[in-house]
Design brief:
The chain is mostly helical and 68 residues long. The protein has 1 helix and no strands. 0% of the residues are buried.
Length: 68
């Protein structure tokens, strides 16, 4: 491999690594934002249920719930 080809390969590798980290940063920010929105939605649903008089009620024994 010539010096020019070696330099080009190194530059391409560096560019790929930078792009990979930029993508990871974007995904991290997007997932954090999604988590915040989900939390806000849960709070709003809880508030609406409270306003509607539907505070948490026990689940009847005859209804199966998924295993956690």
């Amino acid at each position: 491999m010539s010096k020019t080809e070696c330099k080009a390969a190194k530059e391409l590798t560096q560019a790929w690594r930078l792009r990979k980290w930029e993508s990871l940063d974007f995904l991290t920010v997007a997932l954090d934002e999604m988590g915040t929105r989900i939390s806000c939605l849960e709070e709003n649903v809880t508030e609406l249920m409270t306003q509607a008089g539907m505070d948490e009620q026990p689940i009847p024994a005859n209804i199966q719930t998924p295993n956690k």
